[in-house]
Design goal:
Elements (H helix, E strand, L loop, with lengths): L1 H10 L9 E6 L7 H14 L5 E5 L2 H7 L4 H10 L4 E6 L6 H10 L6 E4 L7 H11 L10 E6 L10 H14 L3 E5 L6 H10 L2 H4 L2 E6 L6 H7 L6 H8 L2 E3 L2 E4 L2 E4 L6 H18 L3
Parallel strand pairs: 1-2, 1-3, 3-4, 5-6, 5-7, 7-8
Antiparallel strand pairs: 9-10
């Protein structure tokens, strides 16, 4: 009788799965961000139809508000379902503190070999490829000025700050009419706007186009960039600029155009994921 009970328990164990699970790690978003994530889901299903996919969310605030799973919870579920390997693909743009936290989380599962894939701008050649795509939105020098809106980090000791500052220098060297600033941290947006005012750039450029370099240009675009008060738009209009931000229509609604709405950039994420799935064969 004891033996039958043991066999019954043994038979209920999940069948081990050789093919890696795909885990997409998004920052998270309110309901308006669902459209952009739906675009990614469709491309993912088309590109990797033979893999089981799962989602995780790194923003604690959004997880609590929307009832979404964390990366740790999703990986625990993947392990419980019998997967031996998992590839985590972040939808983050820069490899900042959250990326390091993801890397630490991926090490918590000794029974599950987890490979963390790279972010969109993980390498400098990735940065150049991405700029080649985003520049389709740029105003020409005789039309106006472009201001790339980076997310940034409030942590001065975060190693990703060198990427933000490097990107600011890179776009200034590559383009005659492109600047970069961060919502948080460096390059400090208040300092960048103050420099624009000192140089009286509104006399040279009548327009400014704010281009979000964020996967989902949600509340940051609505409030920090294009809001009515204490926003980048308000500060630039005070200088005499006409301010615009790229929009896109999806379904029956209009959205600020975050990086999620550039098909080429979704392809870059798919390339990161494909590379990691290939590496996972030997992992």
């Amino acid at each position: 009788m004891h033996q039958h009970g043991y066999i019954g328990r043994k038979m209920r164990l999940p069948i081990l799965k050789e093919k890696p699970a795909i885990v997409i790690a998004a920052f998270g978003s309110n309901s308006r961000g669902k459209a952009a994530l739906d675009i990614f889901r469709k491309r993912l299903a088309e590109k990797f139809p033979k893999h089981e996919t799962f989602w995780a969310y790194t923003s604690e605030i959004i997880r609590k508000k929307m009832g979404l799973p964390s990366l740790q919870e999703t990986l625990a579920r993947v392990e419980a379902l019998g997967f031996r390997k998992a590839v985590v693909q972040p939808l983050h743009i820069f490899p900042g503190t959250e990326y390091q936290q993801m890397a630490e989380t991926c090490e918590y599962f000794p029974g599950l070999r987890v490979l963390l894939s790279e972010t969109l701008l993980h390498r400098w050649d990735f940065v150049r490829e991405t700029l080649d795509v985003v520049e389709q939105e740029f105003l020409a020098p005789d039309e106006g000025l472009n201001l790339l809106a980076l997310h940034g980090t409030p942590l001065a000791a975060d190693p990703v700050n060198i990427v933000y500052l490097g990107m600011e220098r890179l776009v200034a060297d590559l383009y005659p009419n492109v600047l970069a600033a961060s919502v948080e941290g460096v390059p400090d947006h208040e300092a960048v706007l103050a420099r624009m005012k000192r140089q009286n750039l509104a006399r040279q450029y009548k327009k400014v186009k704010i281009i979000p370099m964020m996967y989902l240009a949600g509340m940051h675009a609505e409030d920090d960039l294009m809001g009515d008060e204490k926003s980048w738009r308000a500060g630039l209009e005070d200088m005499g600029f006409a301010v615009q931000c790229p929009m896109i229509r999806y379904g029956d609604a209009d959205y600020f155009k975050g990086l999620a709405y550039y098909p080429e950039l979704i392809s870059f994420f798919m390339e990161r994921l494909q590379r990691s799935l290939t590496l996972a064969r030997y992992y």
